[in-house]
Design a protein that fits this description.
The complex is a heterodimer of chains A (180) and B (1182).
Chain A: H1 2-5, E1 17-23, E2 26-32, H2 38-45, E3 64-67, E4 70-73, H3 79-82, E5 86-88, H4 101-108, H5 118-131, H6 137-143, H7 154-179
Parallel strand pairs in A: 1-5
Antiparallel strand pairs in A: 1-2, 3-4, 3-5
Helix pairs in contact in A: 4-7, 5-7
Chain B: H1 5-14, E1 18-26, H2 38-41, E2 44-53, E3 58-62, H3 71-83, E4 90-94, H4 111-138, E5 145-148, E6 151-154, E7 157-163, H5 164-168, E8 172-176, H6 201-206, E9 221-226, E10 241-245, E11 255-261, E12 264-269, H7 272-281, E13 283-286, H8 299-304, E14 308-315, H9 318-323, E15 327-328, E16 331-335, E17 347-353, E18 356-361, H10 366-377, E19 384-388, H11 400-414, E20 418-421, H12 424-430, E21 437-445, E22 451-461, H13 468-472, E23 499-506, H14 520-538, H15 542-549, H16 553-565, E24 579-580, E25 583-596, E26 602-616, E27 622-632, H17 639-659, E28 687-692, H18 711-723, H19 734-741, H20 759-774, H21 797-810, H22 812-816, E29 829-832, E30 835-838, H23 855-864, H24 879-882, H25 887-898, H26 921-929, H27 941-954, H28 958-961, E31 980-982, E32 985-987, E33 992-994, H29 1002-1011, E34 1013-1014, E35 1018-1019, H30 1022-1030, H31 1036-1049, E36 1050-1054, H32 1071-1076, H33 1078-1081, H34 1104-1112, H35 1117-1120, H36 1142-1156, H37 1166-1175
Parallel strand pairs in B: 1-8, 3-4, 9-20, 18-19, 22-23, 27-28, 33-36
Antiparallel strand pairs in B: 1-2, 2-3, 5-6, 6-7, 9-12, 10-13, 11-12, 14-23, 15-21, 16-21, 17-18, 17-20, 21-22, 24-25, 25-26, 26-27, 29-30, 31-32, 34-35
């Protein structure tokens, strides 16, 4: 029975295949086995260091990326499933040479100690505020509850999320006013 | 910090246009575990602390590193202040052995208090030199000069000045640090004491920061390690490895090497995912290990651990005082094993160049690591450079050094740079734990209600955790050394007249080393709980009671300030905060000054807590709702940084007190992911009010750990206030608190375990009947002569194309794909109740396959289960269903198979258990059970009839979805399509009433069969995922026809549960489920998953499919299905086979069942079911 689990040469699941991806607005092609986790492709093939390996089990959130605007765990996404979707990493958040307001808020609040979880905190906040521009305290905490921080930076992070929400609302009001 | 370390070192040693300050010392700092005299034996040292270049830029060097505390910013503030240069002109180089001084490990909150002192003196030495140089240049006395922003000016003539850079250019000047260099007066500070923003946050928030995980060097390969099966127990390793089977990873693309040295096993591959896959597949054989004492309740194990008592204090006459005590109060406090839990598992990169080794590491002690690597690799230390990069926060010794040594071994073995990333499971299992600790206090009250005596003993089984590779390779003995580190803050802060303090020095049991607060945190838990107990016994307010015996004025001032800030109301008994409904409220106090370093140690910052708790008396859940925390840190370099450390300490220590305890079994650590080691998350974070005592005129004190130290006692004292119960053992999980609040009164009658009639009993009864039958029927059938393999060209392309659809509808490949997924090659074993049945090779190879089979031989095998040579096939081959296949389809299938590429590999022989091993018995089986499957009803229309044909004949759905009798025959009649098992997976009932919470409509069935997913029921997994994949080539019309037929079989409404109505209690919260599963299944981090409440497997009578999914994972829709549902989440479900124990999987499954299928009865015997499913060969997939 054991022998049946013995892998065999040239396992096609492990053979590299070309995948066209859209990452941070750019079209890129990578060659990897279809089941390769998107996290490895982003880090090792595209040299994007924002997403971090934390658990490989979808538990901690340090590998978070935006997939079509949603904050998902790249350690659980096979590269093949990322084809045809818009992938955004921490590096791709800003635009026009400016950081995203959520990044600015986290920097202003010094909302990191080691900063290893920061990627997931920022991207989860971006997705939250896109869906809910004025979240309550409970909603903020609940949306971040599966993003683990071990240094205990929660107080600063919560402050940064509230500040980011205010920045984004102010920006929106400003631009609405401009259009009116 | 860029460039090769040797080149950087040469630059600082040789370049011109530099002013450099060196410090001369005798010997290096002592290291824990040093032999006597080792530190001094290295002789005189001259190390660089500061450099100013010709542009006036300052580089400062420090041996301590930034563990995420912001020390890089604070040290730069100190240098900039003392030199009077703008903050942004100072760059810090921390912990690089090529350039930075050896100042010992970054431990014990010493960086600002101790390691920054020579840095400040170096800056003062440089400043004095520069001012003197300017004095000559400007022809003014030094007293007439002032420094402003890196320019020395004549105070009276602000236009006359000379920048530092001009003074430095043109020469290389080496100064020796002067311990008496004049220091700037604190009142003149403009930068120190201000909240300068941290320099590292912006790059970290943009992905531009280079953590050690992000280091890439040219030609770098990826490594993984395989650890011995004694997770987190280093004392048993060495000589455990029996062998490694290289062939088990021969299939891995880009595999470079399997490296074995003693018990060290590592893998190197070109790509990271392949290294990870290789480490998973590598078959290593180890000697079994067990025999660890129970460390989940560690008190007995610690008392049994051999120890040497060491007396730290003996004041007064303890025994006499105890004999005269008015009331005795003897107490024991128990602290559990805990872990650092760095969010990023440790990582390192190692590279050899010309025989010199460079290691990029997240170590907290670069110089000690260099010594370890020298020993490991038999290299002189000078040939090794440690480049220190930040890693995920660590709070003591995690696996950073271990992985550095792993990388060095692998880089040496393959002669190329190697990056090694530990897995989450490895970091959890092997990081040196914060040790369990047992504290005993003997004491009591004297006649006046004061403390009669204080006899304190503490046990702390921990040491420095030797770098793992040293033990694995046999360089260092596994026998653990004893470090005298249980003495931190072992002496209580109170002026007890009669006091005795004894620390029992002992070796580790599980691998352990220092973790934030070291032994001081548990020792203070005892001190501060005990004095609270004394105060209650004496009928005195606990803060007032403390102040009576606290003779340190700064401590007393802090205690008073915190009490006032929290609006503490003095009280003498618990219950003053009342409650509402099931919630009880309470408030507790604790104080500590953290004394660290070798006894008698140095005091870091003072800290005090007032904690507010809320307790649910029914569930036992404890919330810390608010903490008022005060700290006296002396001079604060960066008040924001100190506040940040206080917040971090409060949150982390609250997490440790409320939730954290490492799980063990007899082999080692069972907490190998975040579900089994839950930490505090955002919803549980308390409000924190920080009081920082302004003492800018006092020397700076360590602030990295102090605010953790009062945590446990403050919280348990608050819990006492709320409940009147003292908790002396941590953590305060809901289970332990509930048990204390609701002691069991009468043991309820145990429900008798439900037992199904043993499968074997039925088997043997029936088997006897079969043997009797065997004598009466002709078992053998004639052989069809072999033929030449038919020429595929003889078949029309349309016939072959039709055959392809028939093969798709029949999902032939689900069973007949080869182990390497070669089409139709067979050889894959299928789990059946009778043993492993191997699918045959059905490629047109004349020897191994069916190339020599004529069409009549093929048709007989398909319809009657008789092989060409006349032997009977096992009904794993579903010939009863296939007997209904239309002649035209069967011919097309034959043509299609004959057109395939022949594969010469023979499938293994099926060898079943007796009596199934007797193939001739299948003749009797056929006589009993073989009934051709034909379903037709002209009245139901063409779709229904087409669907019936596809489902019943070609699709042979009944082969899996009908129950089988004990002889392996599908049951008929009412049981037809009534649910069965296939390859270890349950195949749910298709006819009659379903257990699914929502009915399966025709559209649901269509979506499921077409895309593999019904948003109202869940996704196909296991063998069914392969079936859906196989159906891919069929036109929508055929899928629709199957859906029409299957929908017609469904009954109305959900199936009722037999027996009494179930009304199970709402499930207690499961921290395991919360940590391991909720991120995707409740939080949406996995994408649009089908809500668990709708997932069919959670509502089944059998837990098998849920267990299969947890153990083996579920691939993403896009990986499995040719026509994936575009709304299906892109994520796969990870496999938890390597991570969770049987008990943990059972806990998660039980919780999910109770929470999401509340109407269904609990599954019995879950843990045994998990063990059983784990033992099955995982379904291989297409």
């Amino acid at each position: 029975m054991q022998d049946d689990r013995r892998p065999v040469a040239n396992d096609p699941r492990l053979a590299p295949v070309r995948h066209g991806l859209t990452v941070n607005g750019r079209s890129v092609a990578v060659e990897a086995a279809p089941g390769t986790r998107l996290l490895y492709v982003l880090r090792n093939d595209l040299a994007l260091n924002g997403p971090k390996y934390g658990c490989g089990l979808g538990q901690c959130g340090s590998c978070t990326v935006l997939v079509d605007g949603r904050a998902l765990r790249s350690c659980a996404i096979p590269v093949r499933a990322a084809v045809g979707r818009r992938i955004t990493t921490l590096e791709g958040l800003g635009s026009g040479g400016r950081l995203h307001p959520v990044q600015e808020a986290f920097i202003a609040e010094n909302a990191a100690q080691c900063g290893y979880c920061l990627n997931g905190m920022i991207l989860t906040t971006v997705a939250l505020l896109a869906a809910n521009p004025d979240p309550s305290e409970a909603e903020i905490r609940s949306s971040l509850q599966a993003n683990l921080c071990r240094c205990g930076t929660h107080i600063e992070i919560l402050r940064a999320v509230r500040a980011a929400a205010a920045r984004l609302r102010a920006a929106r009001t400003g631009s609405d006013g401009g259009e009116a | 910090m860029t460039g090769h370390p040797a080149e950087r070192r040469r630059h600082w040693q040789e370049a011109g246009d530099l002013l450099l300050v060196y410090r001369e010392t005798m010997g290096r700092p002592p290291r824990l575990g040093d032999p006597p005299g080792a530190a001094l034996a290295v002789g005189p040292q001259r190390e660089l602390y500061l450099a100013v270049d010709g542009d006036g830029r300052v580089t400062a060097f420090n041996g301590h590193v930034d563990l995420g505390t912001g020390i890089r910013t604070a040290l730069a503030q100190i240098v900039a202040e003392e030199l009077d240069v703008p903050f942004d002109r100072v760059a810090m180089e921390l912990g690089s052995t090529a350039t930075a001084p050896d100042q010992g490990g970054t431990i014990a909150s010493e960086t600002i208090q101790i390691a920054a002192v020579p840095l400040r003196l170096a800056a003062a030495t440089a400043r004095r030199h520069l001012v003197e140089a300017a004095s000559r240049r400007l022809n003014r006395g030094t007293t007439e000069l002032a420094v402003e922003a890196g320019t020395v000016r004549v105070a009276a003539e602000p236009d006359r000045g000379v920048p530092y850079g001009d003074l430095v250019r043109g020469a290389r000047t080496e100064l020796t640090l002067d311990p008496d260099a004049p220091l700037k007066a604190v009142e003149d500070y403009t930068l120190v004491g201000t909240p300068v923003p941290r320099v590292d946050i912006r790059p970290k928030a943009t992905g531009a920061w280079t953590y050690v995980h992000d280091v890439r060097v040219p030609g770098m390969l990826h490594g993984r390690v395989v650890r011995p099966p004694a997770p987190g127990v280093d004392s048993v390793v060495g000589g455990l490895l029996i062998g490694v089977d290289d062939s088990s990873v021969a299939h891995i693309p880009g595999l470079v090497a399997v490296v074995v040295e003693g018990d060290f096993v590592g893998i190197v591959a070109e790509r990271e995912e392949n290294a990870a896959e290789a480490a998973r597949c590598l078959r290593a054989t180890w000697r079994p290990v067990d025999g660890l004492p129970d460390l989940n309740r560690p008190e007995a194990a610690l008392r049994d651990n051999p120890a040497t008592p060491r007396r730290l204090l003996d004041r007064g006459d303890v025994e006499r005082a105890l004999a005269h005590a008015r009331a005795r109060l003897d107490r024991t406090y128990v602290w559990p094993y805990q872990m650092h839990g760095s969010i990023g598992p440790s990582c390192a990169v190692a590279a050899f160049r010309d025989g010199d080794l460079v290691v990029w590491s997240g170590t907290q002690n670069p110089h000690a690591l260099r010594g370890d690597l020298a020993l490991l690799l038999d290299l002189p230390e000078e040939r090794i450079a440690i480049e220190r990069h930040e890693a995920a926060g660590c709070y003591g010794r995690n696996c950073a050094d271990d992985v550095a040594a792993d990388a060095a071994l692998l880089a040496r073995a393959v002669g190329r740079p190697v990056r090694v990333q530990l897995t989450r499971e490895q970091e959890h299992a092997w990081e040196p734990k914060g040790a369990a600790q047992v504290m005993d206090v003997r004491g009591g009250l004297d006649a006046e209600g004061g403390p009669a005596a204080y006899d304190f003993e503490t046990r702390y089984p921990s040491n420095g955790a030797p770098t793992l590779a040293l033990i694995l390779t046999g360089k260092v003995e596994a026998t653990p050394a004893v470090y005298p580190m249980g003495d931190r803050t072992a002496v209580p802060p109170y002026a007890f007249g009669h006091a005795r303090v004894t620390v029992h020095d002992m070796p580790p049991i599980a691998r352990a080393s220092w973790l934030r607060g070291v032994s001081a945190l548990p020792n203070t838990f005892a001190h501060e709980s005990y004095i609270d107990e004394l105060a209650t016994a004496a009928g005195i307010d606990p803060i007032e009671y403390r102040l009576r015996y606290l003779d340190d004025p700064r401590a007393a001032a802090l205690v008073r300030a915190v009490a006032e800030r929290a609006a503490w109301v003095p009280h003498t008994r618990p219950g003053t905060h009342g409650g509402s409904g099931d919630i009880l409220y309470g408030r507790g106090f604790a104080y500590a000054v953290y004394v660290h370093g070798p006894f008698p140690g140095k005091a870091a910052a003072w800290a005090a807590w007032v904690a507010d708790v809320a307790v649910n008396r029914v569930t036992g859940e404890v919330a810390v709702t608010r903490v008022v925390v005060g700290q006296d840190s002396g001079l604060m370099i960066n008040p924001d940084g100190v506040r940040h450390q206080i917040h971090g300490n409060v949150i982390q220590s609250t997490s440790r007190v409320l939730r954290e305890s490492v799980g063990f079994d007899a082999t080692g650590v069972t907490s190998r992911e975040w579900g089994s080691y839950p930490i505090l998350a955002f919803p549980q974070v308390p409000e924190i009010d920080v009081l920082m005592v302004p003492r800018q005129d006092q020397p700076p004190l360590g602030a990295g750990e102090s605010a953790s130290v009062p945590s446990a006692a403050a919280i348990t004292n608050a819990l006492f206030d709320a409940t009147g119960i003292r908790f002396r053992e941590l953590p305060l999980t809901a289970d332990s608190v509930r048990a204390a609040l609701n002691p069991p009164r009468i043991a309820g009658p145990d429900e008798p375990p439900r037992r199904r009639r043993g499968f074997l009993a039925g088997l043997f009864g029936a088997g006897a009947g079969m043997l009797a039958l065997a004598t009466t029927l002709m078992p053998w059938r004639p052989t069809y002569p072999s033929i030449e393999r038919p020429d595929p060209a003889a078949y029309a392309a349309a016939t072959i194309a039709q055959g392809r659809l028939v093969a798709a509808a029949g999902a032939c490949l689900v069973c007949h794909a080869g182990p390497d997924r070669t089409s139709f090659a067979g050889g894959r074993g299928l789990e059946t109740p009778f043993g492993l049945v191997y699918a045959s090779n059905i490629t047109p190879d004349p020897g191994a396959g069916i190339g020599a089979w004529s069409y009549p031989a093929f048709a007989r095998a398909m319809r009657e289960g008789v092989s060409r040579d006349g032997h009977h096939l096992y009904p794993a081959h579903p010939y009863p269903s296939f007997s209904g296949i239309a002649e035209r389809d069967l011919q097309a299938l034959y043509a299609y198979l004959m057109a395939q590429a022949p594969v010469a590999a023979r499938a293994p022989e099926t060898a079943l258990r007796f009596p199934f091993s007797l193939r001739p018995l299948m003749a009797e089986w056929n006589a009993l059970f073989h009934r051709p499957a034909t379903v037709a009803d002209p009245a139901r229309g063409p779709d229904w009839n087409r669907g019936a044909y596809l489902v019943e004949a070609l699709g042979h759905c009944a082969a899996c979805h009908s129950p089988r009798n004990v002889l392996g025959a599908e049951r008929r009649g009412a049981a037809h399509l009534g649910g069965g098992f296939a390859d270890g997976w349950e195949a749910p009932a298709l006819a009659g009433l379903s257990r699914a919470p929502l009915p399966w409509t025709e559209d649901d069935l269509f979506a499921y069969l077409r895309t593999g997913r019904s948003p109202r029921h869940g996704s196909a997994a296991g063998p069914m995922a392969d079936v859906v994949a196989s159906l891919g080539p069929l036109p929508d019309a055929d899928i629709r026809a199957m859906a029409v037929y299957l929908a017609s079989l469904a009954g109305e409404g959900p199936a009722p549960w037999p027996g009494r109505a179930v009304a199970s209690a709402p499930p207690a919260a499961s921290s395991l489920f919360q940590g391991a599963c909720a991120s995707c299944h409740e939080g949406g981090a996995g994408g649009d998953l089908v809500p668990l409440g709708l997932v069919t497997s959670l509502h089944s009578a059998h837990p098998d499919n849920l267990i299969q999914a947890i153990l083996n994972g579920v691939a993403a829709s896009a990986e499995r299905f040719p026509t994936a549902d575009p709304t299906a989440p892109p994520a796969a479900m990870p496999a938890f086979r390597e991570t969770l124990t049987d008990g943990q999987v059972a806990e998660a499954a039980a919780y999910a069942r109770a929470r999401y299928a509340p109407g269904a009865p609990a599954w019995d015997g879950l843990e045994a079911a998990v063990a059983r499913v784990r033992g099955l060969k995982p379904h291989a997939g297409l």
